[in-house]
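Researcher: Good morning. I'm working through a list of sequences from a screen, and I'd like to move beyond sequence-only analysis. For each chain I'm collecting a predicted structure so we can compare shapes side by side. This is the next one on the list. No need for commentary yet; just the structure.
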Amino acid sequence: MPELPEVETTRRGILPYSEGQRVRSVIVRDPRLRWPVRSDLATVLTGQRIMQVRRRAKYLILSCTDGDPLIHLGMSGSLRVLRSAVTPAKHDHIDLIFESGDRLRYNDPRRFGSFQWFASGEEIAPLSHLGPEPLSEEFTGAHLYEASRGRRVAVKSFVMDGTIVVGVGNIYANEALYLAGIRPDRPAGRVSAQRYDRLAREIRAVLGRAIERGGTTLRDFVGGDGQPGYFAQELFVYGRGGELCRGCSQTLREKVIGQRATVYCIACQR
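Model: Good morning. Structure tokens for this chain:
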């Protein structure tokens, strides 16, 4: 599933070809996404100018003159830029064709993503209850500490809760907790303020590195497959259950927390 760094990499990839462009026409081939594409999407989007290409959590927002197309890539979605008409493949569901002649193509084999429209002044409901961005000034160890008081949920599930902080997916939660030395199954309410300060720093660091790697390993968004380069650096724990810890040579353990595979070191994390 595309996580925050991959979505941010997608934003950066499509931005030069989309921002400032006017939508000449819209083609919806299959409206059956997670939420059905509204039947008048082509009508409301045609003629709109994309003023800004933004990201909030794992959503992409193409801020237009009179509203906001809100795109979620789901589990298998992608966006790519085409410089000319290319015969659509089976899962190429939506095209935005710009006056420049470029087109932005949305592909989603599993159709778990979404492509919604919110008019200016209308509340963007999917964004209304989200926590702070992990790379923003609002995200601090103090924020995590205060929100965790009295919480018995595992700290890994806690930091993956989008109402607490957005975009800390499974890969990055595993890695940040390892680097902060915190066991992922420790109750969130039993983590100290000092340790939350370190966890917040490691979350910012691991996401920042992943975004940088996405930028340097970016596949071609122009005529390519639209897929960003995933976190390519050597991972400390994610996906390494049963292997040796890179810090102490203990065997890494694996368990399920919140229905997600979780790997940790019993010596380096407590």
